[in-house]
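Reading group handout, session on sequence-to-structure problems. Before we discuss, look at one worked example. The prompt was deliberately terse, the way you'd type it at a terminal:

> structure RNA polymerase subunit sigma-70

The input record follows.
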Amino acid sequence: MSDIRQRKSERQLRFTIRPVSTEEGTQARWEVRRAVADLEHVRRGPQRPLDHLRALRHAQEALNRGTSLMVDAARREGASWAQIGDALGISRQAVRQAAIRRGVLERERADAKQWHLPLPIKVPRIMWRIGRRSAA
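And the output record:
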């Protein structure tokens, strides 16, 4: 029975989201491509664990930015929070809360930049953890 529901939801997702290129989607693809290219140096270069850890941290940050941009692109194309959560393997509530926190931080940074104040830097309380939803 769940197989039928899954196929039905996949069909609905395929027909409800139109593949349109957006600025966020293009930027997200660029971020992901750059992160993967940076990781190629880790795979091919000499073994230097500390340098590799730095490269991995930067790649993780780039992938998180790419995920955030891709979420924005999906929302702009009409995807629901539930569809985005299913694609990421997390709940719709987690996706929405992360997007709200990111929006608040972006507004704070824009205000600080306008008044030439030090830019607020906050570590997100929740990072995109793809595929971490428990199977209930």
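Points for discussion. First: The chain is about 70% helix and 0% strand. Second: The helical segments are 2-16, 23-44, 49-76, 81-88, 92-114.
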